[in-house]
Every structure is written in C-alpha cells, then in structure tokens.
Amino acid sequence: MSSLRQTIFGLFALCTAMAVFPANAAEDEQAWLQAIAQGPVSGDIVYFAEIQSRFGRDMGGLDQMLLRPAIGVKLSDRLTVFQGYAYVRTPQSVGGETREHRSFQQINWSLGKVARGPLSSRTRLEQRWVSSGDDMGWRLRQMIRLAVPLTERSGGVSALAYAEGFVALNDTDWGARDGFDRLRSFAGLELPLAGKSTMELGYLNQYVKNRGRADDVDHVLLVTLQLRR
After folding, report:
1. Which pLDDT value is given to residue 152?
2. Which residues contact 98 (CB under 8 A, 6 or more apart)?
3. Average confidence (pLDDT) over 157-174
4. What count of Cα atoms within 13 Å lies in the side-chain half-sphere of residue 153?
5. Would you say domain 2-228 falls under CATH 2.40.160.40?
6. Residue 128: HSE in the Cβ half-sphere, 13 Å Cα cutoff
7. Minimal CA–CA distance to 82: which of 112, 118, 119, 45?
8. What does the DSSP 8-state code read for residue 127?
9. In the chain, domain spans
10. When comparing pLDDT for 36 and 59, which is higher?
11. How far, in Å, are 66, 171, 226 from residue 36 at the CA level?
C-alpha cells in the first residue's frame, strides 16, 4: 500500500506541476485521439504505425492530423532503433492548410524497473520540411516514461506518466527557431485490453514557447489505443 500511495502522490504532484504556466500564456482545451499498431515483422525486424487526430480551439474542430510509420531493428532486449516517416496536415484559421513531411531516427531504450513498473526512454531526431517554406528543420525530442502497476496481478491497470522535451536545432524560413520548442507532460492510466494491447487515458499538458507573442498552454484529453502483436 505504501508503494501505491507514493505512486498516487507522485502523479498528483506531477499534475500540479503541469498546471503551472506563465500568466500571459494563451490557453486552449483540446482532445487528441491516436492509435498505434506495433509488432514484429521477421526476426529482429519490427514496425510501428501511428495515426492521430487532434481537435483544438476548445475542441471545436480538427487542429491537426498525423500519420507516422516506422521500421526498426531490435539490437537487444532493451534497445531498438527505428527509421520512420511522418506526414502532418494542419488546417489554418485563415483558410488553407500547411503540410509537413518528416524523416526521423528513433532509439527506444528500456531503463529497468521503478516501483515494479517499466521505465523507458525514447530519443527521436527529426528532419522537417513544411509547405510554407523551403528550409529543412532539425528537431530533437527526448521522452522519459514510467508505468507503475496498481494491482499485484500481472497485466492489470497501471498509473502512467511521461514527459517529453522538444529542442529545435536550427532556424528555418517557415518559423522554427533554434532552442527550446515545447514540453509535453502526461499523467493518466494504462488499461489492459485483449492480448498485449492497452488503452492509455489521461491529461496531457503541452507548453509551447513562442517568439513575438504569448506562449501557448494546451490542456489535452489524450486517448491512445496501443495495438501490440
């Protein structure tokens, strides 16, 4: 029980920390729905494929759509590397839309267990091309994720928390600026489904650093379907 109390207290502290943001930030309430399929292809070759819809402007309309497939190699039980592609379509409030193409390299690393739950790291390096400009943008993303079981039995409900920082590595003619870009922090539950699949449900806070205008803070209801083979 002490471990469970510590987990609940830790998640409460994380949620409290996520609610702190600059007083002049522009806020929005959003809902993000995503499905991720993943599994083996042959031998040590693995894949994942993700589709995501983000509804913004107080959940009043589609804010962004994302498709992201990748192929990878398991180098060990703890380390997997991927090469992937992402397509992002973003409708504009003034009409039209921007389209983004990304190539990315990713490292998934299992760091061990904390409070009986898996602690993992995901590092992603992106090369980005956006339809409103000609430059290629480089961006580095780093995530730390922890899922702590809330029951003694295997395959039960887990408390889930993660944080992901984004850093742009160069300036571009379509608006990216070198330096800190954004931070995403999540707290919620991981619910078991059939087989190895799970559903993740919870609150995500996204803080976006802007230049020349107020920063953005998005309060997101995030639902993720993880389909594992």
Report:
1. 86
2. 89, 90, 92, 130, 131, 132
3. 97
4. 4
5. yes
6. 27
7. 45
8. E
9. 2-228
10. 36
11. 12, 31, 5
